[in-house]
Amino acid sequence: MRLCPNRNETFTRKDGKTWDIQTNHRGERILSDEKEDTNLWIIGDSMAMGYGLPTKETLAFYLKTKYNLNARVIAVDAIGTNGISRLLKETLTGTKEENHPKKIFWIWNPSDFIDDEREKTGLKRFLYPIHHLLSRYSYTYRYFLPSPPNNVYTSYGTPILYPKEHITYSNLFQFLNDPSISKEKLSILFSLGMSREGKPDTSDPNYDETKKFFIQEGMNTIDLRKKTEELFKEQKQIYIPGDGHPGPALAELFADAIASEFLNLQ
User: Fold this and answer.
1) Predicted TM-score of the model (pTM)
2) What is the reported pLDDT for 43?
3) Domain count of the chain?
4) Which of 21, 93, 147, 246 is 20 to 30 A from 236 in CA distance terms?
């Protein structure tokens, strides 16, 4: 799954504010039509993509304006570990070796435990994007859907600790041990999702457990959970109101952390 290529669209959020998104011919979100090669890549799902954020509030925009760093954003809303892995490998294959990244940053969050369970193969892989859009925007369609599983990422549940036998851990192990992906180039960023009360979700135990897993696999992790809580206490907009995706303050925090590590490599 990729974003639609060569688009420049504007949408309205739940809070009434608009946000724009522009994509290139590869279906990647970009800041402008300027073609600039970069060896800094961002991968992930909606958190990395900047879902709901206008261009001038995205992670890539802060990297460019604060640090003069161009970032290639290889991210799509509502995909899990396998989807992200497949997207990264396809992008590596389609990119000249001299333009391969020096560093790849993955903004990870526990929604993968849900997305991995619902990722489809075969024909269902192509039908799922249609289902996803209808379930998001059509009340009538949602009315006839069965109740979703009980978990923190819906409005119905509470945090649960996913077992080590969960498919996400299997997918992560395959991803991190794929010889075509350099583990030395990959860093994992952790923040905090929004709870149903609109606060940082500090009760979810999967952050700690997954971080342990990444460390055991020899991965570099960047834990921004405490800084996320501090920004919330300072009443910064770390989440999009009524939505829960990262707001501009959290996007800027990601940019600061990524720039700090990337510039140290130069």
Assistant:
1) 0.86
2) 97
3) 1
4) 21
What 3-state class would DSSP assign to 178?
Answer: coil
One-letter amino acid for residue 24 of the chain: N
- CB-based contact 75:42 (threshold 8 Å): yes
**Span 224-234, pLDDT tens digits:** 999 999 999 99
Residue 2 located in a structural domain: no
Among the listed residues 195, 178, 182, the one whose alpha carbon sits nearest the alpha carbon of residue 238:
195
Q: Contact, 46 vs 77, CB < 8 A?
A: yes
CATH of the domain at 64: 3.40.50.1110
Q: Give me the phi and psi of 186, to 5 degrees please.
A: -100, 130
Cα angle value 75/29/139 (rounded, 5°): 70
**Spatial separation of the C-alpha atoms in residues 119 and 83, rounded to whole Å:** 8
pLDDT digits (tens, 9 = 90+) for 182-208: 999 999 999 999 988 899 999 899 999
Asked whether residue 144 is assigned to any structural domain, the reply reads: yes
Closest by CA position to 41, among listed 29, 55, 56: 29
* Structure-token match 């709901």, residue found: 52
Task: Yes or no: say if 45 and 79 are a contact pair by the CB < 8 Å rule.
Answer: yes
Across the strands, what pairs with 44?
75, 107
